[in-house]
Specification:
Length: 93
Amino acid sequence: MNYNDRVKITYERKVPGYLGDDTIEEKEAIEPCGKIGLSSDEQIGIFGKYNQNAFKLYIQGVHKGFSKIEYDGVQRSVYLTKWHRNSTVVILT
């Protein structure tokens, strides 16, 4: 796997507040990653339709509990997270 891109991962936690739970950003980390597009079969199997904006991001290392991902200066929504060997695989839309 070629990890030639960088991604910013933000970890948050919820604490009880006056009007409900408040979210506090704990830390941000910049990690190496590799971007791969989704095949047609994966798009149909995951989304049920063709979504050309979706792609897979292989982040080096195992990361759990993150809440936000920023790739190429744009904050992306996380659709699915998997762990494969020593990588975290995230499907972003």
